[in-house]
Amino acid sequence: ASSPPPAFDLRHYWTSFISEIDARLDAAVPVRYPSRVHEAMRYSVLSGGAKRAPSVMCVAACELVGGRERRDAAFPTACALEMVHAASLVHDDLPCMDAASLRRGRPSTHALYGVDMAILAGDALFPLAYEHVTSATPLALVSEHAVVQVLAEIARTVGSTGMAAGQFLDLEGGSSSESQVLDVLGRKFGEMAECSAACGGLLGGADDEEVGMLRRYGRAVGVLYQLVDDILMEEKEGVGSNGRSMGKMRSNASVVDVVGMDRALEIVEGLREKAKNHLQGFEEKYGERVLPLYSFVDYAVDRGFVIQEAIPASIAKV
Amino acid sequence: GKEAAALATEFDFKGYMLSKAAAVNRALDLAVPLVEPRRIHEAMRYSLLAGGKRVRPVLCIAACELAGGHESLGMPPALAVEMIHTMSLIHDDLPCMDDDDLRRGQPTCHRAFGEPLAVLAGDALLALAFRTLSNPQSYPSSLSVPPSRIVRAVAELARCVGSEGLVAGQVVDIESTGRAEPVPIERLEYIHLHKTAALLEASVVIGAIIGGGSDPQVERLRRYAQCIGLLFQVVDDILDVTKSSQELGKTAGKDLASDKTTYPKLMGLEKSREFAEELNRDAKQQLEDFDREKAAPLVHLANYIAYRQK
Which stretches are annotated as coiled coil (chain B) (predicted)? Predict the structure, then answer.
């Protein structure tokens, strides 16, 4: 697969997307009675610095198959993906799990609101995600059949064979082979990206074959992104790009530790090629509309710019 | 009065409950296979299959059948509400919440599997509930369920369990515990309506929606469910002061010991019993427009909740 021409400005596309999705999330998670749990939910979803990778993937996949005029079809689901993503992170950070007191350079939800509120905020964000999809998806653009598929897809992704499994396997540790660490990465990070791309496709009107391609593309990109993060962390030997406290890596199963740096870089190249291969069919059909998806692959590897807010110096030094 | 009594003799409620609960147990067993990673599925199964009377799923199926649907159509929503009920118990029992060691006479999930797995098993059951409800493949292939019904049911369930439903009740409960001043009755009712009644409401309402009930039918059944939801809690409070731990299978008198406000404490035992009677009557009133024979299970379920001994 050839690289896209540099005409597509991913940085601009992504940054303007972040302000758009943040505004929608701001409206989708209001403070109601009882206020404390709603504040904890808002803090978890809106506490700044999030790259919004799941939602940008979802909307870009929808635009690919449905065109830009169809993008409003994807936004409620994009918001829902951010909600379930945030809910998982809140529970992953708990003292009995990864015991992370920082998230993106700020206190994690339980550090600020207490462990009980953090559990309940997570428990409430999952259903809010489903509710938001049902109430906000424009039925003028999307069939109820597609809405049902999206709901089932999200529920499968966060469940006992997907992200919850990834977190469990990661906590359990003992991943000593390449396939084991890649399995953990796949479940913890590949699943969410796969779900995001597949949902975007479903909402954009993709056929089964296209959804399948988006699914495999998304999974490859999700794993690729995380793998490169691991490598960069290994090189820096410092704070991860998510600004979490030292001594606790985002994932306990570091691929680099298990397979070595050379092999890790090989896997990266393999995944980059695989992800792009899944896009070839789309390129023939949709031409330039596929450029955002190509650029995600290159960004995952090259990190040509910083998409999130800078980590405050006081925390970076800890 | 008399007619209801006559019906009570005709309808074999005990047999109905046992056969429906058995069907629910079989379906729950199949809904959580022991796949990899095994440990997380073991934890889910441990709590989900620990027994219990399956009141919520039976209510769901009964409402589905009353609305015109077959039992097999009501099974996916029935499983969903039982999964969510189990999930809320697992998270409620955690050390940072109620810190309970026993549930239905067995070690709680986190005592048996550790805290991280208890958190994850709860999250996974919550996800599986919505997956079961929304996945068209959960339903019998001979009956195609209109997607509009599924979308409506998902919206309803999500609302009843979220930050303005079940979770709201837990939050206000936490905020009201251990305070010097007594909890006012409005707040107590808020807690119960959200913590207990919301899921009973969802059980009945999504059963009726998936079963194909009309909007007025769904709303009447919603009011029925709200009454029995509050009834459930009033009876729970009464049992807590009148029964021993052994009879209940859980720590009795805990509400008194922890200074939790209860109906008997607030209005006295006799007035609490009268209130329970009133709620039971109101609940049954909502069923009067339905076919009498078909409504029998829900009539008896209300009695069952009102007169249970544990």
Answer: 266-296
Summarize pLDDT for A69-101 with one digit per residue, the tens: 999 999 999 999 999 999 999 999 999 999 999
Mapped onto helix, strand or coil, the DSSP state of residue B258 is coil
A96 touches chain B (CB under 8 A): yes
Give yes or no for B250 touching A (CB within 8 A): no
User: Does the pLDDT of residue B2 top 70, yes or no?
Assistant: no
What per-residue confidence (pLDDT) applies to B310?
74
- B120/A116 CB distance under 8 A: no
- Write out the DSSP string of A193-238: HHHHHHHHHHHHT--HHHHHHHHHHHHHHHHHHHHHHHHHHHHHTS
Report the alpha-carbon distance of residue A136 to residue A124 in Å, rounded: 18
B120: nearest CB among A34, A161, A167: A167
10 Å CB burial of residue A85 (0-12, 13-18, 19+) is: buried
Q: Output the average pLDDT for chain B.
A: 91
Q: Given a cut of 50, is residue B122 above it in pLDDT?
A: yes
Asked whether the beta carbons of residue B115 and residue A96 sit closer than 8 angstroms, the reply is yes
**pTM greater than 0.80:** yes
Q: What is the ipTM of this complex?
A: 0.92
DSSP secondary structure letters along A86-99: HHHHHHHTSTTTT-
The owner of tokens 């599925």 is: B41
Residues of A within 8 A of B120 (CB-CB) are 91, 164, 167-168
d(CA B73, CA B71): 5
Q: Is the pLDDT of residue B49 over 70?
A: yes
Diameter of chain B measured on Cα atoms: 59
Q: Is A29 helix (H, G, I), strand (E, B) or coil?
A: coil
Choose among A243, A258, A262: nearest CA to A309: A243
Count of beta carbons in the 10 Å neighbourhood of residue A73: 26
